[in-house]
Amino acid sequence: MPASTLTKHRATVRSTVVLKAIMAITGLVMIGFLLAHMAGNLWVFAGREEFNDYAHHLRTLGEPMLPHKVLLWALRIGLLLSVVLHVYSAITLWKRAHVASARKGGTRYHTSKGQRGVQRSYASFTMRYGGIVITLFVIYHLLHFTGNQIHPGGASSSPYDRVVNGFEIWWVWLSYVIAMVAIGLHLRHGLWAAAASLGANTSPRRRRQLNTGAITIAVVITVGFLLPPTLILFGGIS
Amino acid sequence: MTGSGDTSKDMDLKLRVWRQRGPKDDGAMVEYDVPAVSPDMSFLEMLDVLNERLTLEDDDPIAFDHDCREGICGACGVVINGIAHGPEVTTTCQLHMRSFTDGDVIDIEPWRSGSFPVVKDLVVDRGSLDRIIQAGGYISAPTGTAPDAHAVPVPKDDADAAFDAATCIGCGACVAACPNGSAMLFTAAKITHLGLLPQGQPERDSRVLDMVGQHDAEGFGGCSQIGECTAVCPKGISLSTISRLNVDLLGALRSTYAK
Amino acid sequence: MTADSYHVVGEPIRDTKAPAGDIKDRWDTRRFEAKLVNPANRRKLSIIIVGTGLAGASAAATLGEAGYQVTSFCYQDSPRRAHSIAAQGGINAAKNYRNDGDSIYRLFYDTVKGGDFRSRESNVYRLAQTSVEIIDQCVAQGVPFAREYGGLLDNRSFGGVQVSRTFYARGQTGQQLLIGAYQALERQVAAGTVDMHTRHEMLELIIVDGKARGVIVRDMVSGEIESHFADAVVLATGGYGNVFFLSTNAMGCNVTANWRAHRKGALFANPCFTQIHPTCIPVSGDYQSKLTLMSESLRNDGRIWVPKAKGDARPAADIPEEERDYYLERIYPAFGNLVPRDIASRAAKNVCDEGRGVGPGGLGVYLDFADAIARLGLASVEAKYGNLFDMYAKITGENPYQTPMRIYPAVHYTMGGLWVDYDLQSTIPGMFVTGEANFSDHGANRLGASALMQGLADGYFVLPNTINDYLADGPFVPVDETHPAAIEAKQLVEDRIATFLAINGSRTVDSFHKELGQIMWDYCGMERTDEGLRTAIAKIRELKAEFWRDVKVSGVNEELNQTLERAGRVADFIELGELMCIDALDRRESCGGHFRAESQTEDGEAMRDDENFAYVAAWGYGGEDGKPILHKEALEYEYVEMKQRSYK
């Protein structure tokens, strides 16, 4: 008996509940990053010098306590780990759900009715495909602003110029809008689900509060990220 | 026996029903016209009437699970127009035809889940839910060992909340409605019921570890907090039971591995 | 007394296991005198238990835990769905937590009196004693009974008794108790002591050397006919109210296991004792498949009435106060709307027979809450009865806050069942019967909140203490499929199934079942007469012949075939229906749920005849076309004085 119980408990370590907890924690880490990133982006309104200073300071963060870029890399590794775990959990759960819901091809139920469910939010439909969109965007985004490998609108060593040059092009702006909306939707359901998965949904009233909170934070992050590029496109910043 | 009082409100309906001869056969949606349906009929009585006709026409009657027909045994349950148990939040047996209108086309399908294999037509095998209970959904209290019922008082709020969770009828609508095919609401209802009572404390950790382990071993999906389960649950089991399960599980893992 | 043309009289029967002595000590005496089985030997002994309701699941869990090898069967897809789950009201126990004068003796007294002196004193006393342990057991299992703010268990008064001894879990007590027993059962399944077979229906009993040694079951998914063997067989198969087609029983409830055992030699006791519950939702059309009970508690505040004039079809609201007949208050001024179930039911039938019924077909009476709402306020009525009102609205589409509810009596419980002795053993050695399936504790009428008590008493506490006495002589000689008795029983089942499938007639199984139900309701329902019962017997015999000539069962055996399942059940119900009428015909007295029009007082109340009918009628099977054999077990009352009930 003890041996089999232990095996069962080991299996529970890899259970859906634990995977969901991992997704929740890593998701919250990334949301923390997004809030900081969004706040940092708003430096663009302060002007070229201040924004470039901010971008530079990211690299000297933690100095002189820590050597150059160490904290930045620590944060980067932490984020990368979060992304990997988040995506790994998502794919594992996705596969399970596919089998568990007995989907053959794309359909589970043959009827064309009731496909939107009883009460589920639109955002809850977008989690998996939204996740793919966000992943693709992040790769593009890193190549553009962090690595400086691609530079629509013209290369520059000044982060400020890269931002302004890029967002003056309508399709760069549009791709950014699409990604930010995807992130907004992802956060609207993801934040609530993360909180609930970690045990915060203790009553129907708390469920409403958590959903309101999730919507608020999703909107703040989406709007916050969209403000600078939109103003750039429409000539508010140059 | 008397006929229904007012036949002027009777409806003509078209059904599209999932027919599948056996577990290994392919199934398909088959159309049936059902005329003169009284709005006072229950949904299952409407199927009874159709089955009587199919029998006399040498057709195979539609198999569906049902027993108490008063919404408590949990045997019945089909997906009606894409919604588990249909448009009202109740069991299929308590759904009445007055929820439909003349000329409606009604699609009827079985609970669809990898862990609920179809037995025939609308009948599925829900043995996986019993096995989750077997894994730990109980309090070990051999007959005769019990202390006096008043030996341990239980705060009324806890007793009431435990009761709310304990009203689960094990119908499986939560699984059928869950986009991930998760049985987490079912599992969490039992965790909550027993975990809120003082009698349930000694086995609280092992219960959640074993039940979740079994839930996953049965092939059910994970919970994404979408909430479709609780929205179709005939007994209104709260989604917050799942938060409770998660806290219990993570706590149990911590204490197991801290040892 | 001479035997009428429908039956013959056999030898009297006696319960040889009940000890003598002071009634308080009898259960202790029996437990002491019964042989025990050494725990090491239990592993070598096997028990088959059919049915997983309160009586079956609790027995399987307890006997599995004790160390026996248990094999359990249920026809449902999960043991949790057995119909005990639908019981609403509560469970009685003589805890006297209220300090209101209750005691084991009072519960015993109330139950004997409520059963109208047709039950055994010894059995009922043991039931009352055991009731106390049941509550402890269920609480330990985590049954969430209603509690008070102090954290202690709440009680209510139920079914007109003057003490509060009913424990409850909102209106779902049966569900919570069954889930408790089911969880205990599943724990034993996991431990490997109980081998659970769902979607298996018992179709025949195997008797070897005079002992019950096994059952033939049909796997309802594959159609396979399987033989299972054990040292003892327990039937916990419930009641037979579905003989009326319309009842509050689940659709699958049936008498087949019991009837097959009866045909193999088990006596069937008091089959005509049927409880008809007064507050059910009336029939709305001929498609109706079952009836739904509304809790009796509604009669605490609702007033029951019909129009004074025959055929008054006006809506309730348009009938002025002076044209309404509050007939229970008029006839029974002392008890009014709270008269016992049988009296309320019969009164409703009488006013409807006079043509004053309301609703579709004139089969209903009003249960009006207008006064209660005016007196207590809408909110208060909603708090008390909200869930019941919602249920009513869901089923009927009417709003009971605005228009009076319509109610009508419906068959609810059967007090009769297979005859058992004090050990719950039938007349076939090695076959035990528990719960509603046996006849022993409720006499001619069951009190509210006593069915759950009896099911759990039998399964948790009585059977596990008495079955040892029989098993101590085992293990018996091994038996397998090759034994002639097993081959014969299996052949019987296969032939019967083949016959059903071959008839290919022109009528559906349900049409026969509905016709049988109508005959039973008309002639063997709330009021029975000599002439009516004779008519019924003739009609049932005709129906039986037509059934075997003209029933249509589609499909094949080797698949899930719900029509085939029903055909077998209806065939047995037809035979049982005839026996019920014969029993009702023999009992020329009125008692409890059995009202013979010939035996009533001047003002129309039931009149018992203790001189001639203070016996249990235990019927032996008389063969396919033979006459049933009546064995009488005399009932003696040492502790409770026999009195006529009066509720005027």
Question: How many β-strand runs of chain A?
Answer: 0
How many helices of chain A does DSSP assign?
Answer: 9
Structural class of chain A: mainly alpha
Classify the helix fraction of chain C into a percent range.
25-40%
**Which percent band covers the strand fraction of chain C?**
15-25%
Main β-sheet of chain A: number of strands, strand sense, barrel status? none
Shape summary of chain A: globular
Q: Identify the most extensive interface between protein chains.
A: B-C, 84 and 91 residues
Shape type of chain C: globular
- How many structural domains are formed by the residues of chain A? 1
CATH class designation of the domain at 277-411 in chain C: Alpha Beta
What is the CATH topology assignment of the domain at 277-411 in chain C? Flavocytochrome C3, Chain A, domain 1
Q: Can you walk me through this structure?
A:
- The complex is a heterotrimer of chains A (238), B (259) and C (648).
- Chain A is mainly alpha-helical and 238 residues long.
- Chain A has a single domain (17-100, 122-233), classed as 3 helical TM bundles of succinate and fumarate reductases, CATH 1.20.1300.10.
- Chain A has 9 helices and no strands.
- In chain A, 29% of the residues are buried.
- The model of chain A has no long low-confidence stretch (mean pLDDT 91).
- Helices cover 35% and strands 13% of the residues of chain B.
- Chain B has 8 helices and 7 strands.
- Chain B has helices at residues 43-56, 127-136, 156-166, 173-177, 184-195, 204-217, 228-232, 240-258, and strands spanning 11-19, 28-37, 79-80, 83-84, 105-109, 118-120, 123-124.
- In chain B, the strands form 2 sheets. A 5-stranded mixed β-sheet of chain B has the order 2-1-5-3-4.
- In chain B, helix 5 packs across helix 8 (240-258).
- Among the domains of chain C are: 277-411, Flavocytochrome C3, Chain A, domain 1, CATH 3.90.700.10; 484-614, Up-down Bundle (Methane Monooxygenase Hydroxylase, Chain G, domain 1).
- Helices cover 36% and strands 15% of the residues of chain C.
- Chain C has 17 helices and 22 strands.
- Chain C has helices at residues 26-33, 39-42, 54-66, 104-114, 121-141, 173-191, 256-263, 327-331, 341-353, 370-376, 378-396, 451-471, 484-503, 509-523, 530-550, 562-586, 610-613; strands spanning 8-9, 46-50, 69-73, 91-92, 166-167, 194-197, 200-208, 211-219, 225-229, 232-235, 268-269, 274-280, 303-307, 324-325, 365-368, 405-414, 417-418, 431-433, 507-508, 551-552, 615-620, 629-634.
- In chain C, strands 1-22-21-11-17 form a 5-stranded mixed β-sheet. A 5-stranded parallel β-sheet of chain C has the order 6-3-2-10-18.
- In chain C, helix 3 runs parallel beside helix 6, helix 4 (104-114) packs across helix 5 (121-141) and helix 10 (370-376) runs antiparallel to helix 11 (378-396).
- Chain C is globular, with a radius of gyration of 24 Å.
- The two termini of chain C are 33 Å apart.
- The model of chain C has no long low-confidence stretch (mean pLDDT 95).
